[in-house]
Amino acid sequence: MYPMIDPALADAGLGDAEDDDFDAIESYDSQLPDHRYLDRELSWLAFNQRVLELAEDPSLPELERANFLAIFASNLDEFFMVRVAGLKRRIMTGLAVPTNIGRSPVDALADISREAHALQLRHADAWTSLVVSCPR
């Protein structure tokens, strides 16, 4: 059996909290701008863009750049299988719950499509230039 926690110890430090303290926190939150949060999906695409930038770095060895290109492609595949599929599922089931920044899933998908397409074109260009630059 687990020993019982003394109720006096369980409440230690909690008796000093006043209801006014919580009201002050709530009023502070209401003063913050609504756009302070990043979109979850676009933030993830920005991370994957940084991986692609490493693949485009000519100062890195060719094999390392090819590895970053593979990581980018794998990440993008998983992104579409999990996150984009989740957004599409929300739309199809009628549970079009807004994203964490208050946008509709349809708007989020449009932005994802635009960003992912641009990244995919950069990926293809990086791969082509890497293959052309490699000695045969």
Overall morphology: elongated
Which percent range fits the helix content? 55-70%
The major β-sheet equals: none
Radius of gyration: 24 Å
Can you count the helices? 5
Which CATH architecture would you pick? Up-down Bundle
- Oligomeric organization of the protein chains: single chain
**What's the domain count?**
1
Low-confidence stretches: none
Q: Span from first to last CA?
A: 70 Å
Beta-strand segment tally: 0
SSE ordering: HHHHH
Determine the mean pLDDT. Answer: 83
Coarse structural class: mainly alpha
Level-1 CATH class name: Mainly Alpha
Please give a handful of descriptors for the protein shown.
Methane Monooxygenase Hydroxylase, Chain G, domain 1; 136 residues; mainly alpha
Write up what this structure looks like.
The chain is mainly alpha-helical and 136 residues long. The protein has one domain: Polyphosphate kinase N-terminal domain (Methane Monooxygenase Hydroxylase, Chain G, domain 1), CATH 1.20.58. The relative contact order is 0.12. The mean pLDDT is 83. One of its GO terms (biological process) is polyphosphate biosynthetic process. It holds the Pfam family PP_kinase_N. InterPro entries: PP_kinase (IPR003414), PPK_N_dom (IPR025198), PPK_N_dom_sf (IPR036832).
